Amino acid sequence: MRTALAIARKELSIYFTTPWAYAVFTAMLGLAAFFFVGGLYEFQHAQEMARQYGWERVPPEFRNLTDGVMVPFFSSVMMITLFVVPFLSMRLFAEEKRNKTFELLMTAPVRPVEIVVGKYLGGLGIITATLGLTLFFPVLLSFLGRSEAGAVLEWGTVLLAYGGLLLWGATCMAIGMFISTLTESQMLAALGTFAVLLTWMRLRGLAQATEEPMRSFISHLSFDAQLQGLLRGVLDVETLVFFASVIFFSLLLSHRSVEAQRWA
User: What angle do CA 221, 201, 230 make, to 5 degrees?
Assistant: First the structure.
């Protein structure tokens, strides 16, 4: 475990000493701010409509800031993460192969499982930092917002939603790392990861062309369907097991891929 942590620290130092991570941070904050401000404008418009025509004409989710602003914001961050993670995970193994340091890594007295776990922990650290930056928005809303009913935000819902986003980011990183083990091209790894994640997320839409009960089964496997409860503050053990299984299976595939290339 000590070796894996050393590899994780090395990966994090590489991320934070190159401009790429800061470009990703800037893109995440910029896009998140765009959707956050858009959600605030929509919430304000709904409040004005309610004052003029009554709440019967306004969707019920606009009665509070948590449901009216933060829940749509979490869905937007989920989609941004789908675009961001492939560019963070692509370098984990593909860069080693491109720089011809993968062979040195394979001949070092380090087990493949330690390499995989260490690189994954490094990737997990950078995606946690990236998502953590967006906590600025609910904190800002909590300080500047107003509510006659007490707390501006339901922080239980907010924190549970962030737990779901971290779980989503961890899953994306595990899948991206596996795809990165298959190629030395970072761009190919990024595009492959994005294609897999987008297809898996949109399974619910693709399932409409099938008949029951296959339609319900495929829809249930969609990332989008699994995440919706967590993003609304609803804890479901089945969702946790689903994502934990995907992460474990992706790490297992990464280990098998690295081990096979070690003896190739």
Answer: 75
